[in-house]
Amino acid sequence: MRAIKNPSLSLRVAAAAVAFGGMLASLHAQTPIPWTVTWSVPPQQAPLLSSGFNNLSQQTLRQILHTSISGSSVRVEISNVFGNTPIVVSDVHVANAVVNSDGSPTSSTIAGTDHAVTFSGSSTVTIPAGQIAESDGVGFTLPADADVMVSMYFPNGVPESSIPTFAQDGGQNGMFLANGDVSAATSISPYSTFSSYYYLTGLQVQNPNSLGTVVALGASITAGDKSNFNVNHRWVNDLAQRLNTAGLQVGVANKGISGNGLLSGSNANPDAISRFTRDVLQQPNVRWVIFSDVIINTLSGAGTPPTFASITSAVKQLMQQAHAQGIKFYCSTLTPNGGRPADQWTPAAEAIREQVDAFFLNPANGCDGIVDQDTATHDPANPLQYRPAFNAGDFLHPNDAGHQAIANAVNLGLFTANGVPPFTASTGCGTLLAGQGITPGHPLPSCNGRFQISLQGDGNLILYDGNTMVWSTQSSGHTPSVATLLADGNFVILDQAGKIFWSTATAGLLGDTLIMQNDGNLVLYTAPTAPNSPVWDSNTVAASKLLMY
Prior knowledge:
This protein has 8 helices and 38 strands. By secondary structure, it is of the alpha+beta class.
C-alpha cells in the first residue's frame, strides 16, 4: 500500500513509514502525535493540461506555499481527485524556499534544507483517478509563517485527455515548470511560471503542542482575491499570524474558492455542500471550521435569489455534520455588498443578507461561535458598504487592510479550552493595547498615579480618583476572568467561560489603544502613536467631577 486514499472515506490513510535522510525511520510512526494541516488548498477540476503544460512528460513541477503552524516532521498530500486517468509522480522533495526582500517568491530553495519524500518507502507513487496520496512523514524542522517549496517529477507525463486537479487561487506567481528531474536542485531554470496549484493540495506537520486544525471554508474573500499578490495577506494568513503570536498552536487550512456557492456548483467549482466532507470533515486533526463567504455568491446576480429558509437549512445541515464529528462550527456574518452593479447585487439579495446576518448573530442559531465580518468591515456611516479604507475597489472584496480587519474579528478565545483569549498585562502606566488585559487585583493606573481602573472580583470595573469611585461599568454579579481590549477594537469584560458580559460596543471602530489619562478620562483611541481619534470614553475628566454610569 502506498498511502493512497479514497476521498469518499471518512478515515484518512496513515503513512506507512517516515523517511529521514533517505533512510526509513520510526520517528513518529509509534507516537500518538496527530498530523495537523499547516497549509492546504481546495481541489478543483482544471482544464486539460495539453494547452500549456506539454503534458508534463519528464518535467518537474515546483510550487511554493506558506505555512501556518510549525512542526518537526512533514508529509505531502497530492490529489488526483478530479482526474480521469492515473498519474505517476516521482522524486518528491520539500525544502525551505528563497523569497525576495519584498516577500515575493523565487524558484530557488535554501541550500541544505532539501529532503526527499517517499510513499510507503518508494520514491514513486501511482495515484488512481479520483484518489489522493499522502506521503510518508519526513523529519523536517518547519517554522510557522514560512515559505516552503514542494517539487515533484512526472517521469511519464499525463495523457492529453487527462483532467488535472488544481486550485485556481494561488495568489502568487510561485508555481514553476522546468525540464528534467530537478526536484532536488537548489536553483532551476523554469520555462513557465503561473499562479495556480496543480496536484499539490496539502502540507501537514506533526507538532506535539498542536491544538488542531481550523478550516476556513469560503469563497473569493477567503481565497484572498484582491489582496496584494505574492505576499500572503489573506485574512486566513493574518489569522495564522495572530494565532502564532498568541502562542496558540493551531494549523490553518484555507478552503476558499473564488465564485464558490452554498447550494450549486460543478467539478470546476464544487459547492460548499458537496465539498464539505472532503474539505472539512476529512482534514487531519480538524477541530473547528469557520464558515465564511460562500453565501454571498449564492445571493449574487440579477435573478431571484434563493430563499432565506433554503440557505439556513443548508447551513444547519453542514452544522449538524460538523457536530456529529465533534467539530465546532463558527458562523461568519456576510460582508457588505452595497455599491455593486445592479446586475450583481439586488435589493432582494441585500434583504436576505441582512436576514442571514441577523440569524448568525442570534444566540439561538446553533453556531458554536461568531466571526462578525460585517461589523469588522462596514462603514459606520454607510453600513451597506465597506469602509473606504477597506474597499479593494469592486465593493465586493476587501483589500489588505480589510483582510486584517476580518482576521482581527476572530476572537482567539474560540481556540482556547476555557473560551478566554490569550492576553498579557500592560507593560507601562496608563495604556492598554490590543491583546492586553486587566485582572482582579492588578489595576491600571494613570501615569500621574492619581487615577486607576480596577476590575473587582464581582465583575464590576471601577475608575477611582484616589480612593473615590468616579465611574463604574455597573456589571457586578459575574465572576470575571479579564477586562481586555480585543483585536477588533472592543474593550470587554469576560467571565470565566469567555463570555462577554460588558463591552464598550466598539467592535469595528478601529480602536486599538485604551488610555487611563492623567485628567481622569478613560479613552479608547484609534492609534497608539497619535491618540487624537477617540472612539469611546468614560466622560470622567477630573475637572467636571461627574459620576457617569
